[in-house]
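Whiteboard transcription, Tuesday session. T.W. wrote the structure tokens on the left side:
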């Protein structure tokens, strides 16, 4: 009997993947920069400089979108593990549940869908004053797991009390502490 209770207390680990974003602006900048050279209109210094700027910004935007898409969020009993194989400066981060300071749900526009909402998770490691923030695509199940396992509660009086329904009134920020 005691073994079955212990097995029920241990929750399974869950894995969530990043969501794709529109890469149209990145591809447009890359195409515009490339066309400048292929059409031969790069004879002026400023035109060539702008073309190179478009190519660099397009590549950086595309790299950022690919990082977001390849990131994996693992929720386990020990904490939140953020794995990003293309983010070379931080391939994996392990955040234990006891040091989450807050979570913000940012609604970016009126009548928002899940794509228009962003989740910001704030974490301070033990014996440190450094505050880390991870911007995560809004996945209601992931937000619920983080709030539940980290013991975060919604602030009083705010319109958003659960993650299943997004407030439709307009832009706003909702906080769990």
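and on the right, the sequence the group agreed on:
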């Amino acid at each position: 009997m005691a073994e079955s209770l212990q097995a029920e207390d241990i929750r399974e680990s869950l894995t969530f993947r990043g969501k794709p974003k529109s890469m149209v602006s990145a591809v447009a900048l890359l195409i515009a920069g490339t066309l400048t050279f292929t059409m031969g209109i790069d004879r002026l210094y400023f035109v060539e400089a702008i073309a190179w700027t478009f190519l660099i910004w397009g590549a950086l935007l595309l790299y950022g979108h690919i990082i977001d898409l390849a990131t994996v969020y693992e929720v386990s009993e020990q904490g939140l593990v953020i794995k990003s194989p293309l983010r070379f400066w931080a391939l994996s981060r392990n955040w234990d549940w006891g040091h989450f300071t807050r979570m913000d749900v940012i609604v970016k526009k009126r009548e928002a869908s899940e794509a228009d909402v962003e989740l910001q998770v704030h974490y301070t490691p033990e014996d440190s004053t450094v505050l880390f923030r991870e911007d995560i695509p809004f996945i209601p199940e992931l937000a619920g797991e983080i709030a539940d396992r980290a013991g975060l509660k919604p602030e009083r009086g705010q319109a958003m009390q659960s993650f299943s329904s997004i407030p439709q009134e307009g832009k706003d920020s909702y906080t769990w502490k």
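Someone added at the bottom: The radius of gyration is 21 Å.
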